[in-house]
Amino acid sequence: MATAKQPVAVPTATSVDDFLASNPDERRRADAGRLRAIMGELTGEPAVMWGPSIVGFGSYHYTYESGRSGDAPLVGFSPRKQHLVVYLTGGGLEERYAALLAQLGPHRAGTGCLYLKRLDDVDESVLRQLIERTVRVHRGVDRASRQ
Q: Residue 144 contacts by C-beta under 8 Å, 6 or more apart in sequence?
């Protein structure tokens, strides 16, 4: 169990291939494979397990106003039972990317993540834009603009 001093998700030596292959849902495995390829292409980073269930790409350092800081993947995903969860820019996702999310297709948005049922149901070019913008923001190349 993580404490205030220990991040919940840190890079591990667990095999991404083994983790993805262990998913019992064939469609979810296929979607995870596609998303892995997309994120790898857009980040130029290899897939690494962050904690027991997040496939992350690259990393960035963050510091909250409270002074708490840590490292997180630039982008990542988790092929859960109900949804494919895509981890993007933390905080204000719906406000920051309202126009893009309106074009994405069926999804649910959380604070910094998207919940997708199937990749085939969403516009992949829009998803790619969301991923690219998140990577740019986390690398400090772009401000978290609202689009």
A: 89, 92, 96, 137
From the list 145, 73, 81, the residue with the least C-alpha distance to 113 is 73
Spatial CB neighbours of 44, under 8 Å, sequence gap ≥ 6: 58
pLDDT along the chain (147 residues), means of 10: 58 96 96 98 97 95 84 95 90 85 95 94 97 91 50
Identify any residues that bridge with 82 across adjacent strands, giving them in sequence order: none
Task: Give residue 70's pLDDT.
Answer: 86
Task: Give the bridge partners for 113, in sequence order.
Answer: 87
> With b meaning 16 or more CB within 10 Å and e meaning fewer, what string describes 12-24?
eeeebeebbeebe
How confident is the model at residue 65, as a pLDDT?
84
- Evaluated on CA atoms 101, 110, 12, 28, the torsion sign reads negative
Nearest Cα residue to 84 out of 136, 137, 33, 138: 33
| CB distance 45 to 56 below 8 Å | no
Q: What is the DSSP letter of 52?
A: T
**pLDDT computed for residue 142 by the predictor:** 54
